Amino acid sequence: xxxxxxxxxxxxxxxxxxxxxxxxxxxxxxxxxxxxxxxxxxxxxxxxxxxxxxxxxxxxxxxxxxxxxxxxxxxxxxxxxxxxxxxxxxxxxxxxxxxxxxxxxxxxxxxxxxxxxxxxxxxxxxxxxxxxxxxxxxxxxxxxxxxxxxxxxxxxxxxxxxxxxxxxxxxxxxxxxxxxxxxxxxxxxxxxxxxxxxxxxxxxxxxxxxxxxx
Length: 214
Fold this sequence. Notes:
Layout: H1 2-27, E1 28-40, E2 46-51, E3 61-74, E4 77-99, H2 103-106, E5 115-116, E6 123-130, E7 138-148, E8 152-157, E9 161-164, E10 168-173, E11 179-183, H3 191-211
Antiparallel strand pairs: 1-4, 1-7, 2-4, 2-6, 3-4, 5-6, 6-10, 7-8, 7-9, 8-11
Helix pairs in contact: 1-3
């Protein structure tokens, strides 16, 4: 009998702990950021690109023949120095947590360098040098972010760029993405079933303990 009562108490504590964790999950925001650039180039073409650099200490994940060698100071600011051959891409990602805060600000993604101009005339400065100036070489870059919890999630597409590059400096128009917010149909209610069930089990365990012979 004592074992059954102890098991009920343990079950009650587990349910109440799950309720607490779920409550935390409705308050704590997970913030994910991403900056990715893909270079489209013929196989065998070697190239050096100075690209917008993200504000992160995390290293990139690289796909293809590419090296990202840190930043270089240029007349258009501090840019990321990438060298490679043929098609390749890199991907910077980070994931952190925040209590509260403005979801839209948190979901903007990484701040990146290389932005010039204002309003609709904003551009990204990108420099190209390659083994064949006549070869086609284009880049596509995206900045995305997400801030969300169990109740609500906001995803935003930050400034991006897309276009073909010539030798030397290029100024690609800034592409702006939209923000989308998804709200759970029952915000703030995930924890209620755990707390109710935990309270009921706790009460049953207490009554059985009271009836247990000394």
